[in-house]
From TrEMBL:
Keywords from the UniProt entry: Metal-binding, Oxidoreductase
SUPFAM superfamilies: Cupredoxins
Protein family: Belongs to the multicopper oxidase family.
Entry protein name: Multicopper oxidase CueO
Domain spans labelled Plastocyanin-like: 66-180, 222-295, 359-469
Molecular functions (GO terms): copper ion binding; oxidoreductase activity
Catalytic activity line of the entry: 4 Cu(+) + O2 + 4 H(+) = 4 Cu(2+) + 2 H2O
EC code: 1.16.3.4
PROSITE patterns cross-referenced by the UniProt entry: MULTICOPPER_OXIDASE2, TAT
Taxonomic superkingdom: Bacteria
Pfam families: Cu-oxidase, Cu-oxidase_2, Cu-oxidase_3
Binding partners and assembly: Monomer.
The keyword Metal-binding is annotated on this UniProt entry: yes
């Protein structure tokens, strides 16, 4: 990884000045902070949002973006930003093909933007930084949900402030479900659990500390806003929707005994069939749905979920499952899940280059920092393109990934080798290796207009690693 001295020296002004007016947090980052004993507190499962009104075609919601104080660490109240003041925000459970309208009220003293990550929505509802919600105002976001059932999430995308605002809590799950009869053998209801994994740094008063590009300092791993929780499960199958909600941290997840997981979905929906795995890797913003069969364990067992990419106990031990009694199960997983995703032959080939300007503290796409008034590429609607995405940061060595708004893409290969596992499904975010490349097939076939593409290591995006594509006829 890149030594941050050059980046932070050049970016010191923006990092020190990044504290938003609503949260003037004391910064004593190196002071000791009380941490709970691992696996001593229960998992928090985010509240499911309830529509304020339902019509024949649409579910209507209202949310308020505001500051709140929540308990993350024992005996402390941490000031956060949250949707409805929650950390994470409430989970929206939408139905494929049924429209959702969310009225987002902004009660902060600064602009806010809401992006539905993974949503195939028109540009005016995508959450572009040029379309902010002013303080005291609201914006109605309309989501048609005409896309495969999938684990999506919503988060802030304010101009050059998305890194800090998401870090301080502006993120939540948006789950598109199918009709139960379409997938009767997948765990559902109380056995379908969204898990947002992210790291954080706290001062001695238990307040979140934000410094740009501070991935090494964020040394406590949270699950749904709680450090190293436990979760009581029954002896049966569970669907775990895993989201890497970190700004910077990459995760490598496995069960402590190396037990097999069934990988059933990636960013954009179900895979063609369940894939056995003993671990899954997630760069920031990637999602993987897995099914774990806890019936294989005796009642009273303790099963730990580990992050093998962690550098300390606080980032290696993720959470613990406490196995209880046997209950009726959903049956064997189906042999077939979703459709095979293939975008066909490409008509256009492009190279996209990700790099770092360490002297100036900037991150670049094709040698340029983000300009909200500049279009970086024009793409014909319905035309399949092949993108060769290069991470040019060999020295200094820096991890990147790439997220595309407004479409799903097909990952072809990484460093010349075919990908496997969840990367064979519909993707909207993909990791790009240090000094290497990844090849993807891209097709915007829904809407015309302007969409972002950027590194979803959000600190990099806020420091310039973002660009815009215009989809034309």
């Amino acid at each position: 990884m890149l030594s941050r001295r050059g980046i932070l020296k050049a970016g010191a002004v923006s990092a020190a000045g990044a504290t938003i007016p609503d949260l003037v947090a004391e910064r004593h980052a190196d002071a000791a902070v009380a941490r709970p004993k691992p696996f001593s507190r229960p998992l928090y499962v985010p509240k499911t949002a309830v529509p304020v009104h339902r019509s024949k075609t649409t579910d209507f919601y209202e949310m308020t973006i505001r500051e709140a104080a929540v308990q993350i660490l024992p005996g402390r109240k941490t000031r956060v930003l949250g949707y409805d003041g929650m950390f994470p925000g409430p989970t929206v459970r939408a139905r494929a093909g049924r429209r959702v309208v969310i009225r987002q009220w902004n009660r902060l003293r600064r602009d806010a933007v809401v992006h539905l990550h993974g949503g195939l929505v028109p540009p005016e509802h995508d959450g572009h930084p040029a379309d902010p919600i002013a303080p005291g105002r609201y914006r109605d976001y309309v989501y048609a949900n005409r896309q495969p059932p999938a684990t999506l999430w919503y988060h802030d995308h304010s101009h050059h402030k998305e890194a800090e605002l998401v870090y301080r809590g502006l993120a939540g799950f948006y789950l598109i479900d199918d009709r139960p009869e379409r997938c009767p053998n997948l765990p559902s209801g109380r056995y379908d659990i969204p898990l947002m994994l992210r790291d954080a740094r706290f001062d001695k008063h238990g307040q979140l500390v934000f410094g740009m590009d501070d991935d090494n300092g964020r040394n406590i791993l949270l699950v749904n806003g709680r450090p190293q929780p436990y979760f009581k499960v029954c002896r049966r199958k569970y669907r775990l929707r895993l989201l890497n909600g970190s700004n910077m941290r990459h995760l490598a997840l496995r069960l402590g005994n190396g037990a097999e997981l069934a990988v059933i979905a990636s960013d954009g929906g179900l895979l063609p069939e369940p894939l056995p795995a003993t671990s899954v890797r997630l760069s920031p913003a990637e999602r993987v749905d897995v099914v774990v069969d806890f019936a294989r364990y005796r009642e009273g067992s303790r099963v730990v979920l580990y992050n093998t990419a962690g550098s300390s106990d606080a980032t290696r031990r993720v959470m613990c499952f406490h196995v209880g009694e046997r209950v009726p199960d959903c049956g064997e997983l189906p042999d077939e899940l979703g459709d095979k995703f293939d975008l066909g032959d490409a008509e256009v080939v492009r190279d996209v280059n990700l790099s770092t300007d360490a002297k100036r503290g900037r991150f670049l796409i094709d040698g340029k920092t983000f300009d909200i008034d500049r279009i970086d590429m024009r793409i014909r609607c319905g035309q399949t393109e092949l993108w060769r995405v290069h991470n040019r940061d060999r020295r200094p060595a820096t991890l990147h990934n790439l997220h595309l708004h407004g479409t799903h893409f097909q990952v072809v290969e990484r460093n010349g080798r075919r990908v496997s596992g969840h990367e064979t499904g519909r993707k909207d975010t993909v990791s790009v290796p240090i000094g290497g490349n990844v090849t993807i097939k891209v097709c915007y076939d829904r809407h015309l207009g302007r969409y972002l593409y950027h590194c979803h290591l959000l600190d990099h995006a806020s420091m310039g690693m973002m660009a815009q594509a215009e989809i034309i006829k």
